[in-house]
Specification:
single chain, Immunoglobulin-like, 2 domains, 3 helices, 10 strands, 30% helix, 26% strand, binds dinuclear copper ion
Length: 228
């Protein structure tokens, strides 16, 4: 999760988020190179003494500074498109989780098993445990197996919400009357925090998501203990 003074991206916990971070760094590096070059050129204009009265056109330089940006854009566009399609790829998921956005909490359904379903509310500050995270911890966590392909179906019951987990590279809108799909793979055990990220009303900030990533055998135990 994100803590104070953490302004960049969180550490990735899934292959897709790893790729997203690689792409972010790649795009940022190109951005820095362009900024330095243009900054240098603009700075050097101050020292231009306009000596060449007959310099009216330059076909070659015009060609270069037209085509070069187009090529640079390709180096951003192609990896971006690759990632976009990679994010939408479904790789034979072994678990499907349905999450439904409500004003203002999430509810979950594990329809693959014994149709386990529960609501997940934020723990209010006055009821928070001493080691709890304010505005982030919930009463019922989403338990999911690590190192497995997981499919998420997202929808909403009232207004648009968004199921967002930064460390996993997941952000899917929950829209009433629609069912959106995405998938991810969790690399390691742990708690992964997320928040709703569509402005959905007064308590938009107070419907967090907590994923408890556990080893597969532990997940099977959890699922069999909840088969009511
Ligand atoms: Cu739900 Cu914002």
């Amino acid at each position: 999760m994100s803590t104070w003074a953490n302004l960049g991206l969180q550490d990735s916990a899934s292959p897709l988020m790893e790729q997203l971070i690689f792409f972010h760094d790649h795009a940022l590096l190109i951005l820095v190179m362009i900024t330095v070059l243009v900054g240098y050129l603009m700075f050097m204009l101050f020292f231009n003494n306009y000596v060449n009265r007959f310099l009216l056109h330059g076909q070659l330089i015009e060609m270069i500074w037209t085509i070069l940006p187009a090529i640079i854009l390709l180096f951003i566009a192609l990896p971006s498109l690759r990632l976009l399609y990679l994010l939408d790829e479904i790789n034979e998921p072994s678990v499907t989780l349905k999450s439904i956005g409500h004003q203002w909490y999430w509810s979950y359904e594990y329809s693959d098993f014994f149709n386990i379903e529960f609501d997940s509310y934020m723990i209010p500050t006055n009821e928070l445990a001493t080691d709890g995270f304010r505005l982030l911890d919930v009463d019922n966590r989403v338990v999911l197996p690590m190192t497995s392909q997981i499919r998420i179906l997202v929808t909403a019951a009232d207004v648009i919400h968004s199921w967002t987990i930064p460390a996993l590279g997941v952000k899917v809108d929950g829209t009433p009357g629609r069912l959106n799909q995405t998938n991810f793979f969790i690399n390691r055990p742990g708690l992964f925090y997320g928040q709703c990220s569509e402005i959905c009303g007064a308590n938009h900030s107070f419907m967090p998501i907590v994923i408890e990533s556990v080893p597969v055998n532990y997940f099977i135990k959890w699922i069999s203990n909840n088969n009511s």
